[in-house]
Amino acid sequence: MTNTVKHFKWRMVNGARKHQTPLGKEIHACKPWLDAEIEKIKPDVIIALGKTAATALIGMKPTISKTRGRAMTHLNIAPNVIVSWHPSAILRTIDPAHAALKQNQLIADLKLAKQLSERPAIAKQTEATSI
Fold first, then answer.
1. Is 81 helix (H, G, I), strand (E, B) or coil?
2. Quick check: is 100 in a domain?
3. Which domain holds residue 59?
4. Which residue, 124, 28, 18, 77, is CA-closest to 4?
5. Residue 119: which CATH number?
6. Closest Cα to residue 77, out of 114, 113, 39, 51?
7. Which of 22, 44, 104, 130 could cysteine-pair with 26, CB 3.0–4.6 Å?
8. For the ranges 1-5, 33-37, 56-60, 108-112, which has the lowest average pLDDT?
9. CB neighbours of 35 closer than 8 A, spacing ≥ 6?
């Protein structure tokens, strides 16, 4: 697990720190560290939680409600990239029904990531047994 942007801007709102969305130039400035982490780990699945992570990984600001729920397999960074809701976006959703929907979608996306991450291990095990 990592953060796309390695520093956080924040401001005080009603006595609490509130993180601010990073600018494109801040995402771009931190991209070499993210790329190095991905290169070192070589994950089978990456799940981008929120617009900032998704923007850094897929190169465009997505509409999460339209992008989530499926793995992108055409990107060079990992065999499978999934975009989903950031947990803080769920917590800040005012309408309880909408928050519950986002929460259920995040859970489904995490299950998809788990399923995809287990697939290569099964394939490798099958190859080893058949040799």
1. strand
2. yes
3. 43-130
4. 28
5. 3.40.470.10
6. 39
7. 22
8. 1-5
9. 77
